[in-house]
Design a protein that fits this description.
It contains eleven helices and 14 strands. By secondary structure, the protein is an alpha/beta fold. The strands form three sheets. It has a seven-stranded mixed β-sheet. A five-stranded parallel β-sheet has the order 1-4-5-6-7, with helices on both faces. Strands 2-3 form a two-stranded antiparallel sheet.
């Protein structure tokens, strides 16, 4: 994505960024991208990052302390609420390793600001409790409650990516949630990934592992001009345990086609591997997985096995959530860097500039496809 031009000279307020301890690496990359955008300009700071630390009591209680003034600034707080690889261990006790604790620490940082910034903007790539977004019976509605909770603390904007269900934005009808896509970055990464894919309808198919991801698959297939498909798990609801009767595929012929499985996240990976196995049974050639958030909560053993057995060829996930070194070293893994996208979003909001092409990637993807075609 090219450097965004046409920013107004007058910024809303001086820019400051707090990258929480759970996403320091991503915060540093975003800081570097913004510094590049202002290279050669006068009065550019050495960095935009503002540092903080946590003060702990032996009881496990803690509070946030911001190490420098943020008064009058346009402040962006970035957090990765699902980073389970926290290295904060005061007194031998592990802190900050669960989403609940990360969310509470975010609230502590907002509170530590004392309302002194001109604006407080939250960037939470993986939406906290985003999968608990609807209520069926006597269930809590955690995502909506947490959003209302944080909005009541006086934030100006809330930024997330590929929310599990975009309708959760209705929880904040006035403030709203900016839910940004990752489609351009994924398509660019896959095109440059040396996977030997041909982006035409005779060679490529976009597949969703379930009905929940169909909206994403419809966009990908439409913009790329290829066919799509979806797996449907048929269950026996006459029995209490609802056993799986059959796995049906809804879509065109798979045989000898390359497949891109698109989904918002890899949790344990069971459904992804099952989808890949069913695709291979039906004659798929290469199977590529593209998932925004790579959790890998059951580790990498099943993915290693699937790769060695030829079930999958490549996995792409973003760095919007923590990527452990072990994952980065896997032969089948490629990371999709989102730091520049976030930097552009921050710069645009900080200058009250248009967010059009950052919200809708259609034009960017069309230009990318044309460029790819011209280079063939």
């Amino acid at each position: 994505m090219s450097v965004k031009s046409g920013f107004n000279e007058n910024i809303v307020a001086p820019l400051k960024i707090i990258a929480m301890n759970n996403c320091r690496e991503l915060g540093s990359m975003i800081n570097s991208e913004i510094l590049k955008m202002h290279q050669g300009e006068t009065d550019t700071p050495d960095e935009y990052l503002t540092h903080y630390h946590m003060e702990y009591l032996r009881t496990g209680e803690r509070r946030a302390i911001i190490d420098e003034s943020v008064r009058g600034t346009d402040l962006y707080i970035i957090t990765d609420v699902v980073n389970n690889y926290s290295d904060i261990e005061p007194g031998g006790v592990r802190f900050g390793a669960t989403p609940d604790e990360h969310f509470q620490d975010l609230k502590r940082i907002i509170s530590a600001c004392h309302g002194s910034p001109h604006r407080i903007n939250i960037i939470m790539p993986y939406l906290y409790e985003g999968r608990f977004n609807n209520r069926k019976n006597m269930e809590s509605l955690d995502c909506a409650i947490s959003l209302i909770d944080i909005a009541d603390m006086g934030i100006s904007s809330f930024i997330t990516f590929d929310a599990h269900d975009g309708r959760v934005q209705n929880a904040l009808p006035i403030l709203g949630i900016d839910n940004y896509p990752t489609s351009y970055q994924f398509i660019e990464a896959i095109m440059n990934g040396d996977d030997g894919l041909s982006f035409d309808k005779d060679s490529l198919l976009i597949v969703s592992p379930d009905i929940g991801g169909m909206g994403r698959v419809v966009f990908y297939s439409s913009i790329l001009g290829v066919n799509m498909g979806m797996f449907y798990i048929r269950k026996d609801y006459s029995r209490k345990d609802h056993p799986i009767v059959a796995i049906e595929f809804l879509g065109s012929d798979i045989k000898d086609k390359d497949i891109i499985i698109v989904d918002d996240m890899i949790d344990t990976g069971i459904s992804m591997i099952a989808t890949a196995r069913e695709l291979k049974k039906r004659g798929a050639r290469k199977v590529i997985i593209a998932s925004t958030f790579g959790m890998f909560n059951d580790g990498f053993e099943m993915f290693d096995k699937a790769y060695n057995e030829g079930m999958i060829n490549r996995i792409y996930t973003t760095n919007l959530t923590y990527c452990p070194k072990e994952l980065l070293e896997k032969p089948y893994y490629k990371m999709v860097d989102m730091s520049r996208q976030i930097a552009l979003i921050i710069e645009s909001i900080n200058h009250d500039a248009s967010l059009g092409e950052l919200v809708d990637h259609s034009a960017l993807i069309i230009d990318l496809l044309k460029s790819k075609q011209n280079n063939l």
